[in-house]
Amino acid sequence: MQTQYLRGKDLADKMQKAMKNRVDRLREEGKVPGLTVVLVGEDKASQVYVRNKERRAHKVGIKSDVIRLPETTSESELLTIIQTLNADKSVHGILVQLPLPKQIDEQKILRSIDYEKDVDGFHPMNMGNFLLGNESTLPCTPYGIMTLLKSYDIAFEGKKALVIGRSNIVGKPMALMLMNENATVTIAHSHTQNLKALAKEADILVVAIGKGHLVDADYVKQGAIVIDVGMNRDAAGKLIGDVNTEAIDGIASYVTPVPGGVGPMTITMLLEQTIQKVEKD
Ligand code: GUN
């Protein structure tokens, strides 16, 4: 079987080009979409994500600011900044990059963001509405994955899906989105037994555990669709996914590359949800 790449980068470029036109139209009406990203500390991966978000936002015409704060920032200092952003009418989207330093309660911070400006979909109001099937902002990574899969006309109905990873950001919302498309979903995590055997039954395998090249041919059923959410560095510092793509070549029907698969789609959905906040205004 010929394995096809699900090229998130290509779809992201196409979608962002169309977004630029929408933003130009909004600007003509005097509405400039504004996105503020808050980055606390020196986490290397977060710095890369934030730089990419800023670059892409700028490219589609979104006014993008990054507030960079030191590792030692206190919870109350961060809360004060968020209150200011909540009150600022030129800011339509607020994103606090995770993870936060350990002295800061992540959930308390996410709760403090005006949920109507929460472009990440992490506020409990958005998470709750999403769970209930109401309109809400969606977590960008799983939303981007679903958008990518749908663009390749991949069907979900009755398929067996396995999501490896149970984070609030990826695993849990991913499972829910797949279930909403009528897949039969299992979630695996660090306590799951016989992971290889379980994975080998899956028609759709989503891997989001942050272990470089964990998934190889032993985990993948013939013809499976494999989504790699991993962003790891190997010993030489090269960016690698959770899936050993070469090892599953000829086994999977589709696989997302790293880089160029899921990452660009996450950013695209962030921009999409920021623009939507202004269009709905
Ligand atoms: N850290 C890793 N991924 C994300 C994301 O999508 N949003 C935020 N805010 N933090 C992250």
Automatic annotation (TrEMBL):
Keywords: Amino-acid biosynthesis, Histidine biosynthesis, Hydrolase, Methionine biosynthesis, Multifunctional enzyme, NADP, One-carbon metabolism, Oxidoreductase, Purine biosynthesis. It comes from the Bacteria. It catalyses: (6R)-5,10-methylene-5,6,7,8-tetrahydrofolate + NADP(+) = (6R)-5,10-methenyltetrahydrofolate + NADPH; (6R)-5,10-methenyltetrahydrofolate + H2O = (6R)-10-formyltetrahydrofolate + H(+). It holds the Pfam family THF_DHG_CYH. Its EC number is 1.5.1.5, 3.5.4.9. PROSITE patterns: THF_DHG_CYH_1, THF_DHG_CYH_2. InterPro entries: Aminoacid_DH-like_N_sf (IPR046346), NAD(P)-bd_dom_sf (IPR036291), THF_DH/CycHdrlase (IPR000672), THF_DH/CycHdrlase_cat_dom (IPR020630), THF_DH/CycHdrlase_CS (IPR020867), THF_DH/CycHdrlase_NAD-bd_dom (IPR020631). The keyword Ion transport does not apply. Pathway: One-carbon metabolism; tetrahydrofolate interconversion. One of its GO terms (cellular component) is cytosol. GO terms for biological process: L-histidine biosynthetic process; methionine biosynthetic process; purine nucleotide biosynthetic process; tetrahydrofolate interconversion. Residues 139-280 form the Tetrahydrofolate dehydrogenase/cyclohydrolase NAD(P)-binding domain. GO terms for molecular function: methenyltetrahydrofolate cyclohydrolase activity; methylenetetrahydrofolate dehydrogenase (NADP+) activity. Residues 6-120 form the Tetrahydrofolate dehydrogenase/cyclohydrolase catalytic domain. NADP(+) binds at G165, R166, S167. Catalyzes the oxidation of 5,10-methylenetetrahydrofolate to 5,10-methenyltetrahydrofolate and then the hydrolysis of 5,10-methenyltetrahydrofolate to 10-formyltetrahydrofolate. HAMAP family: THF_DHG_CYH (MF_01576). PANTHER family: C-1-TETRAHYDROFOLATE SYNTHASE, CYTOPLASMIC, C-1-TETRAHYDROFOLATE SYNTHASE, CYTOPLASMIC-RELATED. Homodimer. Belongs to the tetrahydrofolate dehydrogenase/cyclohydrolase family. This is Bifunctional protein FolD. It comes from Jeotgalibaca dankookensis. The gene is folD.
